[in-house]
Write a structure and sequence with these properties.
mainly alpha; globular; 130 residues
C-alpha cells in the first residue's frame, strides 16, 4: 500500500477502499459528492483511530490507517462538486486556485504530519476533508 497517486488513472485505482466505485466518473455520490467517512467501515475505523491519536493521545495509527486516510484525502478533494463552488476556483494573487492547489497538495501527502497540515489548509478554504 505504499503507492503514490500522481495521475487521474492512479486516482481511479483507490476505489478498492471505496464501496462500488469502479472509476472516477462513478465513485462519487450522485456523481458529484464524496462519500461520508461514516459510510465506509474501514475508513471510519481508521479515522476513529486517527482522532483518538490526535485528540485523546492514544496510540499512533498504523500504516494501513495512514494509507486509507491519505487516499481518502485525495479522493475527497477530487470530488466534482468542488468545481461547482466559484470561491474555490477563483484565482489568488499568485495565479493559483485554492482547489487546484489543494489537489496538488493531497497528491504529495507522505506522512501523518502532512495529513494534519493538509486538513487545516482545507479548513482555511472552507472544506473539511475529514
Amino acid at each position: 500500500m505504499n503507492s503514490t497517486i500522481q495521475t487521474a488513472t492512479q486516482l481511479a485505482e483507490i476505489c478498492y477502499f471505496m464501496p462500488k466505485m469502479p472509476g472516477i466518473g462513478t465513485m462519487y455520490n450522485g456523481g458529484l459528492f464524496p462519500i461520508n467517512i461514516r459510510d465506509h467501515n474501514m475508513l471510519e475505523a481508521a479515522y476513529k483511530r486517527y482522532l483518538d491519536w490526535k485528540v485523546e493521545k492514544g496510540p499512533e495509527p498504523d500504516e494501513t490507517d495512514f494509507e486509507v486516510i491519505r487516499q481518502y484525502c485525495i479522493y475527497h478533494i477530487h470530488a466534482p462538486i468542488w468545481l461547482e463552488n466559484p470561491h474555490l476556483e477563483e484565482m489568488t494573487d499568485d495565479g493559483s486556485s485554492p482547489i487546484l492547489t489543494a489537489r496538488e497538495k493531497a497528491l504529495k501527502i507522505k506522512n501523518w504530519n502532512d495529513i494534519h497540515e493538509y486538513t487545516f489548509e482545507l479548513l482555511d478554504i472552507g472544506l473539511d476533508p475529514l
